[in-house]
Amino acid sequence: MNIPDNVLNRLTLYHFILDDLREDEETISSTKIAQLLNIDSSQVRKDIKYLNSSGKCKVGYNSKELKSSIEKCLGFKQTKDAFIVGAGNLGSALAKYTSFKDYGLNILAMFDNDTKKIGTTINGKEVFEFSKIANLVKRLNVEIAILTVPKEAAQAMANYLAGAGIKYIWNFTPCVLEVPKTVRVWNENLIGSFLQFTNNNEIDKVENDNRN
Amino acid sequence: MNIPDNVLNRLTLYHFILDDLREDEETISSTKIAQLLNIDSSQVRKDIKYLNSSGKCKVGYNSKELKSSIEKCLGFKQTKDAFIVGAGNLGSALAKYTSFKDYGLNILAMFDNDTKKIGTTINGKEVFEFSKIANLVKRLNVEIAILTVPKEAAQAMANYLAGAGIKYIWNFTPCVLEVPKTVRVWNENLIGSFLQFTNNNEIDKVENDNRN
Predict the structure, then answer these.
(1) Which of A200, B39, B149, B184 is the most buried (most CB within 10 A)?
(2) Overall pTM > 0.80
(3) CA–CA distance, A39 with A37 (Å, rounded to integer)
C-alpha cells in the first residue's frame, strides 16, 4: 500500500461513517462525508480515488461498495496479532476496545507484574506475568507489543521486549524509546495530538491574540 | 502558531527526549534525536527552526534552551481546562495521565452515569453524574470535553455536550460525531493510527508480497 498517512487516517473515519449508516442509506455523497468531518468535499473525493473503487454514481457513492473498498484497501481482514504490555487502565481500555478486532488487530494476551491482575481475564484476554512474554512471543509468533506500562518502566520494558523478539512496539507511554534496529516504534503521542487539536482550533485565541 | 501538524507532533517527541536527559547532558545533537526517532537529522533541524531558538552550537543544541523554546512555542504553560466524559477504563487512564498537566491540559472533573463511580475521585478528579455537565460547564467556564463513553452513547452525548455549551470535543470513540457548527471535534482515531503503523512498517509484507 502506498497511501499517505493523512489519507489513511481519513479513510478510516469514512469507514466509521459508512459503518453507522442505516440499512436504507444506499448511497452517500462526498459532501455529506465532508460536512461530518468538517473538511473539503474535494479532499474526500481525492482520498477515495486511492481505492480504485468504481462505486460512484450521480447521487454519490454506493455505501456498501465504498465500505468494502476501504476494508479491502486498508487490509482490515488481514489480522495482526498483538500483546498488550501493561494491564492498567489504559491497557484494559485497549483490551476492551472491541473495534480493534473489526479493523484487523487481534489482542491475544496481556501482561502485568501486579499479582492481583495475573491470572484474571479482561474482555477474554488473560493477564500473564511479564516473565512469560519471551516464551509466548515465540510460541504464538507475535511481533507486535502495545506498550501501556507507566512512564518510569517504559524503557526497561522496551529493552526486554526487544530481547524477547518483539519487532513492533505501539508505544502509548510519553517516552521516546531507545531500541535496537530490529525493532520499530510507533509513538501514540497523545500530547502531540492534543496540541494539534488546540493549535488547529486556536483555543486560547481570545487571550493571546492582540489583534482583536 | 503556524506550525504544521507533523512538526508539532515531532516537537513534542523532542521534548520527551529532552525531558529524559540526565542533568549532565548539556547539549544534544540533531543526529542523536533523529536516531532515537528513526528519522532524518535534516528533518530535526528543519523542525527546530520553527522555534526561532538560538541555542545551537558546534556540538549541538543547548538542551535546556531547546526544551524551554519548545515549551514556549507550543504553549505548554497556557493551561486549558477540560472535562472527561465517561469514567470507564479509558477515561480513568486519561485522568491518571500525569503528563497532561505538564503539557498544559488540566482535567477538572469527570462524568459518568454509573452510580458506583459517581462521588468517587480518580487521581483527585471527582466523578459527577452526566446531568451536572451543563451547570459545571457554565460555572467553571470549561470549553473542552474529552469523550470516552461507549460507542453506542457517543452521538447522544455529543448532542448533549453541544447543548451544554462545550465548544471542543476530543473524541476517543470510534464514531464520527455530527455536531453543530459551534462545536469542533478532534478525532483521536486509534484505528487510523494502528493502520498507519502497520502500513509504514509493512507488517505483513512477508505474507503479501510475492516479489520476495
Answers:
(1) B149
(2) yes
(3) 5
Per the listing, cell 472535562 goes with B83
All residues of chain B having their beta carbon less than 8 Å from the beta carbon of residue A123 are none
Contact state of B13 with A74 under an 8 Å Cβ cutoff: no
Q: Which residues of B touch A187 (CB under 8 A)?
A: 13, 37
CA distance A127 to chain B (A): 16
Please write the tens of the pLDDT for every residue from B19-60. Answer: 999 989 999 999 999 999 999 999 999 999 999 876 676 778
Give the distance from CA B69 to its chain's centroid.
19
Grid coordinates standing for A90? 489504559
Full set of structural domains in chain A with CATH: 5-72 (1.10.10.10), 80-192 (3.40.50.720)
Residue A129 cell numbers, joined = 506475568
Q: What is the ipTM of this complex?
A: 0.86
For residue B8, CA distances in Å to A32, A190, B13 come to: 30, 12, 9
Q: Which residue of B has its CA nearest to A152?
A: B20
